[in-house]
Amino acid sequence: MDSALDFHSLRALLEWQVELGADEAIGDVPVNRYEAEAKAPQGVAPAAAPAANVALVQPSGGSAVAAARKAAEGAGDLEALRAALGAYEHCELKRGARNLVFSDGVPGARVMIIGEAPGREEDRAGRPFVGRAGQFLDRMLGFIGLSRDENVYITNVMPWRPPQNADPKPDEIEMMRPFVERHVALAKPDLLILMGNTSCQTVLGKQGITRLRGQWDQAWGTPALPMLHPAYLLRMPSAKRAAWADLLEVQAKLREGAA
Ligand code: URA
Q1: What is the pLDDT of residue 49?
Q2: Measured in angstroms, how far is the CA atom of residue 113 from the centroid of ligand 1?
């Protein structure tokens, strides 16, 4: 039997359809899906917005970035990097956070996911992606045989929860960039998945996730795939189709690398 059509693949496809909201084989009424997406939700660039190279903003205290670079470069392994972040005092968000959220999953895994910032559950648990979006992320990964228990490493751009789950500010992103770069260098993944705009802005210096998604880029010499953030997919189920295509891209890239 064609391996693309075996029981497990077909079952995964069916489950994905259910995730998309399909609850019947054929609807009675045609749906014009082009009309539904005229208005993009908050925090997501409208579909028509071009992917742009954005100037990375220098914070008023350029010394905060210099201190971040020095601390990050001095870390010889992941534990040292975690400690360096814990000792970094230039980011205001640290004061309002309960915990440092550094990473989860398997260090050294072929796949490394870079998300945005912890929410309430992550702040409490000290682990990234444990809330609703995280549970959905786990399901997404499961569709292509990936799991944080076995073969995925996960981190965020920002290790401290921003108040009201606001997007990290440009100067905060600049401070974290050296740490993220070092994190990738130490974890040595074969590929990166960049979840959402903040991750793309930090790692690639580009914004416009709806345009960037699904197109391979390079980050510090490592292939990087921008994807729609799972929290966005929960709010916008019609975008799950694009996420499924991107997951298959990841799967294909991993197989390519394994050949
Ligand atoms: N969203 C993220 O980007 N990261 C988390 O850890 C949780 C939600």
Answers
A1: 42
A2: 10
What is the residue whose two structure tokens read 């990050």?
72
Handedness of CA 164, 167, 172, 175 (dihedral sign): positive
Ligand 1-lining residues (CB < 6 angstroms):
115-119, 122, 128-129, 131, 133-134, 156, 195, 231
* Spatial contact of 228 and 239, defined as CB atoms under 8 Å apart: yes
Report pTM. Answer: 0.79
Size of the chain, expressed as the number of residues it contains: 259
What phi, psi does 155 have (nearest 5°)? -145, -175
Look up residue 164 and give its two tokens: 């009201």
Residue among 129, 155, 199 to mutate when testing ligand 1 (max atoms within 8 A of CB): 129
Q: How far is the CA of 1 from the centre of ligand 1 (A)?
A: 39
Query: Residue 139 C-alpha to ligand 1 middle, in angstroms?
Result: 15
11-69 per-position pLDDT tens digit: 666 666 665 556 556 555 666 655 654 544 444 444 434 455 544 444 455 899 999 99
Q: Do 152 and 111 meet the contact criterion of CB atoms below 8 Å apart?
A: yes
Q: At what angle do helices 132-143 and 7-19 cross, to 10 degrees?
A: 150
Which residue out of 156, 203, 228, 232 has the highest number of ligand 1 atoms within 8 Å of its CB and is therefore the one to mutate?
A: 156
Q: Which two tokens stand for residue 91?
A: 């980011």
- Please compute the mean of the pLDDT values over residues 218-225 and round it to a whole number: 98
